[in-house]
Amino acid sequence: MIKIRKGNIDNIPQIKKCLIVSWVDHAKNVSELLDEERMRKSDIEGYYKKAFDNVKEAFILIVEVDGKFAGFLRADIQKIPDFFKFNNILYLDDCYVLPEFRRMGIATFLIKEAEKIARKNKIKRLQGRVYSYNKSIQKLLVKLGYTSPHSTWDKVLI
Ligand SMILES: CC(C)(COP(=O)(O)OP(=O)(O)OC[C@H]1O[C@@H](n2cnc3c(N)ncnc32)[C@H](O)[C@@H]1OP(=O)(O)O)[C@@H](O)C(=O)NCCC(=O)NCCS
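Above are the sequence and the coenzyme A SMILES. Below is the predicted complex in structure-token form.
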């Protein structure tokens, strides 16, 4: 059975393991910008403790399959400039599903649940940052109706 629940600080070690795998993958794919060693040493505990301490501004959803941790999603409520039509947004920060539970609709389930929470909080816009190489999440987001109206462009001076 697939179940979603709100996370708590006891989930930080599992979340950390997933994030390191995910961030190292980012670093390998975007090696011109990201430092793998520094990503491994990031203060994930601190970053997540802050979210668990600020329940009005952030939430973490955990998915369990038959009682086993299968993945998570972190979302932050953010204010963006007034010239946007909807300037209170839900920022989808981290989303990770353990490899053995992928392609079962779990990330879809997590994002839809985050959308429900956004609606309850009268938030009309969701946003996330996705690396160009990460086609899996892009396909998923397109299926859920997300678009990419802008992108970040980088150049490293040598
Ligand atoms: C990206 C990720 C979250 C997807 O989780 P998931 O639970 O497997 O996703 P879903 O089962 O909900 O997939 C829904 C749809 O997205 C697309 N999709 C998901 N993974 C895909 C993949 N590896 N290749 C191609 N399409 C993919 C498909 O269209 C899929 O529908 P289908 O299975 O009917 O074809 C998961 O692969 C993951 O944790 N990856 C590592 C972390 C990461 O990249 N996170 C996102 C950015 S922070």
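The radius of gyration is 16 Å.
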